[in-house]
């Protein structure tokens, strides 16, 4: 059906509660900002089509709650992610410190094939606020120490860098996703032997 | 034939029968609730949609007694009735939290309207999409879309995420989600080896029947890729987009699913998957025997040839098999499906790998596929395990055709194919005017005989009703905890009968005003007639090479 090659990327947004994950997603999807706080429970999903490297890419964005609640989905949530977005709040040093454990958590649960090169993107959010506590330098240093993860400072409130950040997310995930070997190893030939007698077919005892 | 006074006699008009025959496998409360659904559905038919169902059904506080979530290990004790939501609290609770967020993303999507994205077509607010009688979704365990029967799966990525979350949530509790029943829609789940398949249906199909359909779809995917390949892909890359591997075979999945009334098709085909069987092209026994010997004599020396299958019009003419091997009806349906939706096979000889999952889910058979001649539209498949025998099989096919021509078998086949009854049985031939339609399946073979569809069941609306009747009868007869042997019901618009004996299953629909004595007499006549003609309509044994 599809003539053009389609790409779909699973993107997971992680970070402490109330750093602005949901707001960033909403800003990106709707270009709107709602000041109304609503704790994320369980999971939330949204989809956005973007152009990246001349390709139409569908981003399937998985938003999670911080902390304990979203453990309920466990491994399943992280499974098969193409990119992980780590978000902290520049006014909350704790949320920055916790990025380490969010990253580890992701790598353990998702167990990507090549953890060193798995595409992460780090966002320092709420840069519109004046009580900033984590310096750009500190954040950049940390990102460099972890295989040079791309770092953006964003505001979900005024939209600063949000578009740019998600563009990078799409492109990095795509680059990773693109290098797929074609699994076309020559299939094994079915071996016929006399005692086999349709082991599958006999299970429901139903033959034509 | 003696029809004893039915032990399980039930009159559909009485409410009693509703619980009497409720399916314990699907929990009694469901049946009870479905009664409520129906009344509810009548009132706000238009407003209902798959998504609004999820929303209304699962949001906490909606207090909709007619919703239930069934996990495999969910409490199946009797008399759960409306207290079910309390009993399965952990499940409904958290699924609701998920759906609470669905509501969010939905309202977010609403805000989006008129903003920037025309490309971002929003199916979830599209009345045509929402109004479909049946949806089928296939996704990877990562929640990536693989297939949607209706609509571009890319644009439904949000919904696929929600499905994945529901499935994993229940899995996390060491359980497996089987179905969700909400406001007249059944959501049925089948999780198989890294793939998640979901049906959302307003049809009369039961959970088990929808699962059978999902499992046919799953088999179709394996038929293209093999189980081993799918497993290996996802072992290596959990984020793999399986659409890449399936490109080009979506049409097979679509065709497989398009055989019932939900796709506006009025055909007997749907009954083969409902009864897990196949249909046979009626032929005089001498004709079939000479076809078989024509194939046998030209194939017996070919090493590694496992099956020779001759089919026409979605029906089996003959099957010759390697000793000790047999073919499962689900596998044969995949073969029928492949032939039905490959017009191109008509114009040339073809060589195609095909995995028959019930035969061997991990490897391919190699099929030489061709139609016999221009004037005989029967299709011959020669299936070998050896990928390098095209020319051997091509040669065998030519000799088989010559042989069948010289024995006049080609003519006999063509004559049957061209009959307007299309392999269905014309009831006037039997002389039972009160009988409108029937399904007959012998116990010893997965073969189905059905009568030609005649008025009133030739219109979509009436056919849907017929389909519904059979779904219901089959469901109750095959109930694993309370299987029934006999159902006789007087409905408003027909009299229906289901009867299981040691030798066969019979499902029949009569004129509404016929009385019980007449039904007994007619059934007797029908059975005698079928027994007399048995070898024309059924194949007792599939010979070996
Ligand atoms: N000033 C400001 N407030 C923000 C920004 N992003 C989020 N917020 C606020 O921070 C709170 C938590 O945001 P939310 O998106 O729910 O965080 P989440 O728990 O990570 O999803 C809300 O009150 C938001 O309005 C931002 O960039 N600037
Ligand atoms: Mg949130």
From TrEMBL, chain A:
<comment type="similarity">
    <text>Belongs to the small GTPase superfamily. Rab family.</text>
</comment>
<dbReference type="GO" id="GO:0003924">
    <property type="term" value="F:GTPase activity"/>
</dbReference>
<dbReference type="GO" id="GO:0045335">
    <property type="term" value="C:phagocytic vesicle"/>
</dbReference>
<dbReference type="GO" id="GO:0031902">
    <property type="term" value="C:late endosome membrane"/>
</dbReference>
<dbReference type="InterPro" id="IPR005225">
    <property type="entry name" value="Small_GTP-bd"/>
</dbReference>
<keyword id="KW-0342">GTP-binding</keyword>
<keyword id="KW-0449">Lipoprotein</keyword>
<keyword id="KW-0547">Nucleotide-binding</keyword>
<keyword id="KW-0636">Prenylation</keyword>
<dbReference type="GO" id="GO:0005764">
    <property type="term" value="C:lysosome"/>
</dbReference>
<dbReference type="GO" id="GO:0008333">
    <property type="term" value="P:endosome to lysosome transport"/>
</dbReference>
<dbReference type="InterPro" id="IPR001806">
    <property type="entry name" value="Small_GTPase"/>
</dbReference>
<protein>
    <submittedName>
        <fullName>Ras-related protein Rab-7a</fullName>
    </submittedName>
</protein>
<dbReference type="GO" id="GO:0090385">
    <property type="term" value="P:phagosome-lysosome fusion"/>
</dbReference>
<dbReference type="InterPro" id="IPR027417">
    <property type="entry name" value="P-loop_NTPase"/>
</dbReference>
<dbReference type="Pfam" id="PF00071">
    <property type="entry name" value="Ras"/>
</dbReference>
<dbReference type="GO" id="GO:0005525">
    <property type="term" value="F:GTP binding"/>
</dbReference>
UniProtKB/TrEMBL annotation, chain B:
<dbReference type="InterPro" id="IPR043971">
    <property type="entry name" value="FUZ/MON1/HPS1_longin_2"/>
</dbReference>
<dbReference type="InterPro" id="IPR004353">
    <property type="entry name" value="Mon1"/>
</dbReference>
<dbReference type="Pfam" id="PF19038">
    <property type="entry name" value="Fuz_longin_3"/>
</dbReference>
<dbReference type="GO" id="GO:0035658">
    <property type="term" value="C:Mon1-Ccz1 complex"/>
</dbReference>
<feature type="region of interest" description="Disordered">
    <location>
        <begin position="1"/>
        <end position="27"/>
    </location>
</feature>
<dbReference type="Pfam" id="PF19037">
    <property type="entry name" value="Fuz_longin_2"/>
</dbReference>
<feature type="domain" description="FUZ/MON1/HPS1 third Longin">
    <location>
        <begin position="434"/>
        <end position="533"/>
    </location>
</feature>
<dbReference type="InterPro" id="IPR043972">
    <property type="entry name" value="FUZ/MON1/HPS1_longin_1"/>
</dbReference>
<feature type="compositionally biased region" description="Polar residues">
    <location>
        <begin position="7"/>
        <end position="21"/>
    </location>
</feature>
<comment type="function">
    <text>Plays an important role in membrane trafficking through the secretory apparatus.</text>
</comment>
<dbReference type="GO" id="GO:0032510">
    <property type="term" value="P:endosome to lysosome transport via multivesicular body sorting pathway"/>
</dbReference>
<dbReference type="Pfam" id="PF19036">
    <property type="entry name" value="Fuz_longin_1"/>
</dbReference>
<feature type="domain" description="FUZ/MON1/HPS1 first Longin">
    <location>
        <begin position="134"/>
        <end position="256"/>
    </location>
</feature>
<dbReference type="InterPro" id="IPR043970">
    <property type="entry name" value="FUZ/MON1/HPS1_longin_3"/>
</dbReference>
<feature type="domain" description="FUZ/MON1/HPS1 second Longin">
    <location>
        <begin position="303"/>
        <end position="401"/>
    </location>
</feature>
<comment type="similarity">
    <text>Belongs to the MON1/SAND family.</text>
</comment>
<dbReference type="GO" id="GO:0006623">
    <property type="term" value="P:protein targeting to vacuole"/>
</dbReference>
<protein>
    <recommendedName>
        <fullName>Vacuolar fusion protein MON1 homolog</fullName>
    </recommendedName>
</protein>
């Amino acid at each position: 059906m599809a003539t053009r090659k389609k790409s779909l990327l699973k993107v997971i947004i992680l970070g402490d509660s109330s750093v602005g994950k949901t707001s960033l997603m909403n800003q990106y999807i709707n270009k709107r900002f709602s000041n109304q706080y609503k704790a994320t429970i369980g999971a939330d999903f949204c989809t956005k089509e973007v152009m990246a490297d001349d390709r139409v890419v569908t981003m399937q964005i998985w938003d999670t709650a911080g902390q304990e609640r979203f453990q309920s989905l466990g491994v399943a949530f992280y499974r098969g992610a193409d990119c992980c977005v780590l978000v902290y709040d520049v006014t909350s040093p704790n949320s920055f410190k916790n990025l380490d454990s969010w990253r580890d958590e992701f790598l353990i649960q998702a167990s990507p094939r090549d953890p060193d090169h798995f595409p992460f993107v780090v966002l320092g959010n709420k840069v519109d606020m004046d009580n900033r506590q984590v310096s750009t330098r500190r954040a950049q240093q940390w990102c460099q120490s972890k295989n040079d993860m791309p770092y953006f400072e964003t505001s979900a409130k005024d939209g600063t860098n949000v578009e740019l950040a998600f563009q990078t997310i799409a492109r990095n995930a795509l680059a990773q996703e693109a290098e797929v070997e074609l699994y076309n190893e020559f299939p094994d030939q079915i071996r016929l032997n006399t005692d086999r007698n349709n082991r599958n077919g006999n299970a429901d005892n139903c033959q034509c | 034939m003696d029809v004893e006074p039915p032990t399980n006699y039930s009159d559909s008009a009485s409410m009693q029968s509703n619980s009497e025959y409720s399916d314990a496998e699907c929990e009694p409360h469901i049946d009870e609730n479905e009664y409520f659904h129906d009344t509810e559905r009548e009132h706000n038919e238009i407003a209902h949609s798959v998504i609004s169902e999820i929303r209304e059904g699962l949001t906490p506080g909606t207090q909709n007694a007619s919703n239930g979530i069934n996990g495999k290990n969910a409490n199946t004790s009797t008399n759960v009735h409306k207290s079910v939501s309390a009993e399965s609290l952990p499940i409904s609770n958290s699924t609701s939290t998920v759906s609470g967020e669905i509501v969010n993303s939905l309202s977010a999507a609403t805000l989006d309207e008129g903003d920037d994205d025309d490309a971002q077509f929003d199916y979830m607010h599209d009345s045509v999409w929402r109004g479909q009688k049946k949806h089928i979704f296939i996704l990877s365990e990562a929640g990536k879309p693989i297939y949607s029967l209706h609509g571009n799966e890319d644009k439904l990525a949000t919904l696929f995420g929600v499905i994945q979350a529901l499935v994993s949530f229940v899995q996390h509790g060491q359980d497996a989600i089987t179905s969700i029943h909400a406001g007249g829609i059944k959501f049925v789940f089948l999780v198989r080896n890294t793939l998640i398949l979901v049906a959302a249906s307003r049809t009369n199909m039961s959970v088990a029947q929808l699962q059978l359909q999902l499992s046919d779809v799953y088999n179709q995917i394996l038929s293209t890729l093999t189980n081993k390949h799918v497993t290996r892909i996802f072992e290596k890359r959990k984020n793999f987009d399986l659409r890449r591997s399936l490109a080009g075979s979506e049409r097979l999945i679509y065709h497989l699913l398009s055989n019932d009334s939900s796709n506006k098709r009025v055909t007997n085909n749907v009954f083969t998957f409902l009864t897990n069987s196949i249909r046979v092209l009626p032929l005089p026994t001498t004709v079939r025997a000479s076809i078989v010997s024509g194939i046998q004599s030209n194939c017996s020396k070919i090493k590694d040839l496992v099956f020779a299958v001759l089919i026409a019009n979605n029906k089996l003419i003959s099957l010759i098999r390697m000793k000790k091997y047999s073919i499962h009806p689900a596998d044969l349906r995949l073969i029928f499906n492949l032939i039905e939706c490959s017009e191109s096979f008509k114009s040339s000889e073809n060589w195609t790998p095909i995995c028959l999952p019930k035969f061997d889910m991990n490897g391919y058979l190699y099929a030489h596929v061709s139609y016999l001649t221009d004037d005989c539209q029967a299709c011959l498949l020669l299936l070998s395990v050896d990928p390098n025998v095209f020319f051997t099989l091509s040669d065998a096919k030519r000799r088989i055709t010559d042989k069948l021509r010289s024995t006049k078998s080609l003519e006999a086949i063509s004559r049957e194919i061209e009959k307007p009854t299309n392999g269905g049985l014309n009831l006037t031939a039997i002389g039972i005017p009160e009988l409108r339609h029937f399904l007959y399946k012998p116990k010893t073979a997965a073969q189905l005989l059905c009568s030609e569809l005649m008025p009133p069941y030739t219109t979509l609306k009436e056919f849907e009703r017929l389909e519904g009747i059979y779904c219901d009868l089959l469901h109750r007869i095959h109930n694993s905890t309370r299987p029934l042997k006999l159902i006789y019901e007087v409905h408003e618009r027909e009299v229906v009968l289901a009867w299981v004996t040691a030798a066969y299953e019979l499902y029949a629909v009569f004129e509404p005003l016929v009385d019980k004595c007449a039904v007994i007499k007619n059934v007797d006549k029908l059975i005698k007639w079928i027994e007399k003609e048995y070898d024309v309509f059924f194949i007792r044994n599939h010979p070996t090479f």
